[in-house]
User: Fold N-acetyldiaminopimelate deacetylase from Planococcus massiliensis.
Amino acid sequence: MDLVKIRRELHQIPEIGFQEVKTQSYLKDILSAFPQERLEIIQWKTGLAVKVRGLNPTKLIGWRTDIDGLPIQEETGHDFQSTHPGFMHACGHDIHMANAIGLLERLIEDPIADDAVILFQPAEEGPGGALPFREWLKNEQPSFLPDQIYALHIAPELPVGTVATKPGLLFANTSELFIDLHGKGGHAAFPHLTEDMAVAGAALLMQLQTIISRNVNPMDSAVLTVGKFTAGTVQNIIAEKARLEGTIRTLNLPSMLKVKQRIEAMCRAIEEGYQCKISIDYGSSYLEVNNNEELAKAFLRFAENYTGILAKRSEAAMTGEDFGYFTEELPGVMFWAGVDSEFGLHHSRLNPNESVLEILPKFIHQFFKQL
Ligand SMILES: CC(=O)N[C@@H](CCC[C@H](N)C(=O)O)C(=O)O
Assistant:
């Protein structure tokens, strides 16, 4: 299969979580082109699970790819750029999917001893597909629930051919954050008759910045990012509403609770000080990704001895990944795979080097063979 072509076709149809309808249909068409004798395919919401029968199976090895895009206007200038205005595969899930198809092709052409299952999982960027997918597999399709599971994420800052991971904690736990402020708006010329939510929201946004520096133990780590701040309607009306949208990242649950307590206290103080009402919604939250110690060490050993791959031990990162719900219940490993892009994840000009698709499926197939 021409994996670059597949990646580019997927790149053109990015869809956000649980709306991956065209993506699913595209994937189904690709799957139907494979010889079907060794395959079993099931559908879950906008996702798919594809099982490949092995030669002499003693276990089921899982590979998970995410399939959703992001609400970002693409600015790469590619001739294969997104045909969905305002949406882009800016986190590399198009590469992840093409890699998974390449792996599938190899598993069919050159079967390994064990059975393998490839999970095409929706909604990694939000609201989170891994937990409900895992629960559905467990309760409704237990023969598709792997005994161990692997996944990768592209790493723009690493050269192609590099894989990086570590035993134990790899990614942070996350909570989304949505804060709505509501007060009395009015005429721009009569501020004394209003409570300005643009000012209240801006004050809150600045105060939130002190939580990480003043309330989290410096030997611990946390992130509080407000990625979007909106207020008001037009230049000469004092804003009645403001909204902050963000995400919290910590390395453990007690820190997450602490950060949330401080957010709530600051919101109460802003309510009092700016005479407004504030509501907080924590949206969806993800568990940390914890790599299985033994499997991660074995993965790194294999990669170190594989010609054409540079294996590195990585640090933990504040990225979130709902793959953490798989590693919560199944031994698993997630790793970074270098794609050498000047622009990073979630950037409108992310430009992964597609030559990675010549390397990864073969490498993962060989890794699965010796498990
Ligand atoms: C790999 C990656 O970039 N994952 C996302 C996960 C987002 C989770 C959730 N929507 C949130 O914003 O908290 C990330 O931003 O790390």
Observations:
- Residues 91, 125-126, 153, 174, 176, 247, 286, 319-321, 345 surround L5K734KM (CB under 6 Å).
- The chain has a mean pLDDT of 97.
- The chain has two domains: 3-170+288-369, 173-285.
- Residues 3-170+288-369 form a domain with the Aminopeptidase fold (CATH 3.40.630.10).
